[in-house]
Design a protein that fits this description.
Layout lengths: L1 E5 L62 H14 L5 E5 L7 H10 L1 H4 L7 H21 L6 E7 L5 E7 L5 E8 L8 H8 L9 H17 L6 E2 L3 E5 L4 E9 L5 E7 L8 H7 L10 H13 L3 E10 L6 E10 L3 E10 L3 E14 L3 E10 L2 E10 L7 E13 L4 E13 L9 E17 L6 E10 L2 E6 L10 E15 L1 E19 L2 E13 L42 E14 L2 E13 L10 E12 L2 E10 L10 E6 L4
Parallel strand pairs: 2-4, 5-8, 9-11
Antiparallel strand pairs: 1-7, 3-4, 6-8, 7-8, 10-11, 12-13, 13-14, 14-15, 15-16, 16-17, 17-18, 18-19, 18-20, 19-21, 20-21, 21-22, 22-23, 23-24, 24-25, 25-26, 26-27, 27-28
Helix pairs in contact: 2-4, 5-6
Length: 657
């Protein structure tokens, strides 16, 4: 016997319609012998038994309204049927065949489970049991058990238990699987058939077929067939042999390559030439739907669009190509942002900025930024062009005026800078990033002569060509748990202060992350720096190396580590060496603790001496939010210098490194 089916859905809830009929019976008449002197009837005499009546008759002779013994029992049964009690339930017979998905689906759709914990009467339990029996039968058929039978019973007790007793029967398997139409894919037919995955002798499992359909459709769209269609599978079940055949119709269409990027009606943000700069595909490449998904995410990530439509459309010029239609709806172009912070040694700090993100289309933004703090004041104008001549390339130009007060120096600086960089971000974390640029500075700086403590004031004119190259092999931008990072920065600089002299600043950073157990990560960082070509006192105090603070050696104030002058203020140096190690422990939910140890020092020589480290240790708290960990660290110096605070506090977004 065979049965032909379209593939059934497994998400529908089974429904059962119960019906019944009531039947009334009457007792036969009682024969009364004829008599001339009829015996008067005694109204107090009991009636003759009438066994066909299903309800016990009350014995009126026992007292007004008092039921007879039989009636009491019947009344109790009636009350039990209508009484509502809490219940339990279980499934027997599927331990050998159940899967986590089957159990999860049953729990999602089960009437018994949905009402578990609430009271129900016998009729309600019976209805729920029948509904769930049909549901379980359907789910077992979806797993390939087409002969499955499920019976129900109720185990009585103070808390009755509803039992679904299942007999899955034999697992049905495919005797034949046909994917008609794949021949149109030519040489790609074989790998596409493998993508579908379902083959003869596999269990007749609905989820496997649905997953194979999805894989096949995805692979067709990624292998050059933008208009391919995958039809509904047709299943023929043979109950005599406990097998089934499957036929999946496919229309591939012609293989296409990318053509032009064209604007769909209603596009109102920027032109298609800029979209082409963002796209990671070019005309002539084989069509791949994943490239369209990537372009859609990148367009949203610009922040300039509220909605994006990207779809393939037939090319009127060439039937072997497919154009990409793009429609962009604009988002509000202005952003106002604020930031508050505090750090030991850095003091309180407030930042406010206003940005027009598309003042100079395409993606040319202007930002007005100001900082007010106890030790820093700044005003700047920043031009920023995203996706400049390529994806994720950012061109920046900035003019800034700043007043910075540190224990080491007091600087009033005017700067003009520009750079081009390849950036990473949380949407598209990249392995390699780089930057190169130029800076011009005029800085009026006050410090003291280290040997005598005598105040001095000098003006420096500095030109620099900073360049950086970084590799990120970690698994997360803000909260890495494995992998490593390496970065280098080189900045040749010319300084005019009385005479022109040159030097080069070099800095190397590395960090590594290793998971010890689930929720425990060991992380470490090192930093080395050197200034080559000029003595320390010639170099502007603001351009020297310093150590200490939340992004350096925690436990010390900002820039507090290293040589000091006669006033016990840091004077910076020509080289630095630092390390930090910490254990990131996830304790409960989104909270974690981080014990840490770090050390480092500043040296007057051109190369770091790797000696006389100042050590700091402490513990931090983390809250792992959706946008990254929020960090609170408390540190203390282990071998402090004179004047070092016993406790340092750091608050920021993201891990320390």
């Amino acid at each position: 016997m065979t049965a032909r089916f379209g593939w059934f859905g497994l998400s529908a809830t089974a429904a059962v319609l119960l019906s019944g009929q009531a039947c009334a019976q009457t007792a036969p008449p009682v024969a009364v012998p004829p008599t001339d002197d009829p015996v008067p009837l005694d109204p107090n005499a009991p009636l003759a038994p009438m066994p066909d009546i299903g309800v016990a008759w009350p014995d009126l002779g026992t007292g007004a309204g008092a039921p007879a013994a039989g009636a009491a029992a019947a009344t109790t049964r009636t009350d039990d049927a209508g009484a509502e009690r809490r219940y339990g339930w279980r499934i027997d017979g599927i331990d050998a065949v159940e899967t986590p998905l089957l159990r999860r689906r049953f729990a999602q759709l089960s009437t018994l489970d949905a009402n578990d914990g609430t009271a129900a009467n016998a009729a309600q339990l019976d209805r729920r049991a029948r509904e769930d029996a049909e549901l379980l039968t359907t789910l077992l058929r979806g797993e390939g058990y087409y002969d499955a039978r499920v019976a129900t019973r109720i185990e009585p007790g103070d808390k009755p238990v509803v039992v679904l007793s299942a007999e899955p029967g034999q697992l049905y398997r495919f005797s034949g699987v046909t994917v008609a139409g794949l021949a149109g894919a030519g040489a790609q037919a074989a790998p596409l058939r493998q993508a579908f995955g379902v083959k003869p002798d596999d269990p007749v499992n609905a989820d496997t077929v649905v997953a194979g359909q999805a894989r096949l459709k995805t692979d067709l769209s990624r292998q050059g067939f933008p208009f391919a269609e995958v039809g509904a599978p047709e299943l023929v079940v043979d109950h005599a042999t406990r097998t089934a055949t499957l036929d999946l119709p496919v229309t591939t269409g012609t293989e296409r390559r990318f053509g032009r990027i064209v604007a769909l009606p209603g596009n109102r943000v920027f032109g298609m030439d800029h979209v082409a700069e963002i796209a990671r595909f070019s005309p002539g490449q084989r069509y791949d739907a994943a490239s369209l998904d990537d372009l859609r995410r990148a367009l949203i990530q610009t922040g300039l669009v509220s909605s994006v439509e990207v779809k393939p459309i037939d090319s009127a010029a060439d039937p072997t190509t497919v154009d990409v239609g793009v429609k962009l709806e604009p988002a509000p172009p202005h952003t106002i942002a604020g930031e508050l912070g505090y750090g030991t040694g850095e003091g309180a700090r407030a930042e406010l900025s206003w940005t027009h993100r598309n003042l100079f289309p395409p993606e040319g933004g202007l930002t007005l930024r100001s900082v007010l703090g106890t030790q820093e004041q700044l005003g700047s104008i920043v031009f920023r062009r995203n996706n400049f001549e390529g994806r994720d390339r950012v061109l920046t130009a900035e003019f800034a005026a700043a007043h910075t007060v540190r224990n080491a120096y007091d600087a009033k600086t005017f700067s003009l800078s520009g750079n081009l960089e390849r950036q990473t971000n949380i949407f598209f974390q990249k392995a390699w990033t780089w930057s190169f640029g130029a800076e011009l500075l005029a800085s009026d700086e006050r410090d003291v002569i280290a040997a005598t403590g005598q105040p001095r004031r000098r003006t420096f004119f500095i030109g620099a060509l900073p360049t950086s190259l970084n590799y990120d092999g970690s698994d997360d931008l803000l909260n890495p748990t494995r992998g490593f990072r390496l970065g280098g920065r080189v900045s040749p600089e010319l300084s005019l202060q009385g005479a022109v002299f040159g030097y080069t600043r070099v800095q190397l950073d590395g960090s590594a992350y290793h998971p010890l157990t689930d929720g425990v990560v060991l992380a470490g960082r090192i930093r080395l720096g050197s200034i080559l070509g000029a003595p320390r006192d010639q170099i502007a105090p603001s351009r020297r190396f310093y150590a200490g603070g939340g992004a350096s050696v925690r436990g010390y104030g900002y820039q507090a580590i290293g040589p000091r002058d006669v006033n016990n203020d840091p004077i910076g140096g020509r080289s630095l060496a630092e390390f930090s190690i910490e254990t990131r422990v996830r304790v409960k939910g989104n909270f974690g603790i981080v014990p840490f140890l770090g050390g480092g020092n500043i040296y007057t020589s051109a190369l770091p001496g790797l000696s006389r480290f100042q050590y700091g240790a402490g513990i931090g708290a983390r809250y792992y939010s959706n946008f990254g960990p929020i960090r609170l660290d408390l540190g203390t110096p282990l071998n402090p210098q004179k004047g070092d605070s016993r406790v340092a506090v750091y608050v920021s977004l993201g891990q320390a490194f």
